[in-house]
Amino acid sequence: MDMQGSRPLGVTQQQAWEALNDPETLKRCLPGCDKFESTGEGQYTVTMAVKVGPVSAKFSGKVTLSDIQPPESYRLSFEGQGGVAGFGKGASSVSLAPTDTGCTLSYTVQAQVGGKIAQLGQRLIDGAAKSMADDFFKRFDAEMQRVHGVPPAAAAEPAEEAKTGAVAGLMQKMGFGKKDKTEEG
Predict the structure, then answer these.
(1) Is the Cα dihedral 117, 120, 121, 124 positive or negative?
(2) Could you give the CA distance from residue 138 to residue 156 in angstroms, rounded to a whole number?
(3) What band does 153 get if pLDDT is binned at 50, 70 and 90?
(4) Which stretches does DSSP call E strand in the chain?
């Protein structure tokens, strides 16, 4: 399975880097993750529940970071065993690039699965992987807003719309903006 994508983040490159290297943040953001603990420099043990179609399993494995270029990029390799459900292993490249409104996270993933999960078919596996990635980014965005606040651009837009709506509503109550109806009646 190969997957790639990019996501705009409403935090600075440094804030995103720190979060992507914090085991507690990753544990909260990875769907089904029960454990994400450091075991040494760039080494982590991970336990997570995974469901792909009718197959559910608890995977235990490890993640190793390499080619670390703070705060821009790293490469990670992962492997996990899920008992009779099978195994998963692969590698991913993650990069962060600053933008005017925060940063952009880009990633590529190459993974292999075996065992019962592999028998489910590539389309089902790819769909489950995409769903997990989408869920991770939703959780990661929410976590970044919780820790760092709403991005300035996102905070300004809804407030501006609400202000305009409130003013328009007040103007209508005062009789402004209804000239057509008032002139007719």
Answers:
(1) negative
(2) 21
(3) low
(4) 2-9, 33-40, 43-52, 55-69, 73-81, 87-99, 102-114
The mean of the pLDDT values for the chain is: 86
- In tens, the pLDDT along 79-117 reads 999 999 999 999 999 999 999 999 999 999 999 999 999
pLDDT per residue as tens digits for the range 34-73: 999 999 999 999 999 999 889 999 999 999 999 999 999 9
By C-alpha distance, which of 134, 152, 125 is closest to 29?
A: 134
Half-sphere CA count of 10, side-chain side, radius 13 A: 19
CB-CB contact of 73 with 48 (8 Å): no
Do residues 23 and 76 make contact, with C-beta atoms less than 8 angstroms apart? no
Q: At what angle do helices 13-20 and 122-148 cross, to 10 degrees?
A: 120
Structure tokens at 123: 């389309």
Grouping H, G, I as helix, E, B as strand and the rest as coil, residue 34 is strand
Q: Which two tokens stand for residue 162?
A: 């609400």
Sign of CA dihedral 94, 95, 100, 102: positive
Please answer whether residues 136 and 30 qualify as being in contact, where contact means their C-beta atoms are separated by less than 8 angstroms: yes
Cβ(107)–Cβ(5) below 8 Å: yes
What is the pLDDT at residue 163?
A: 43
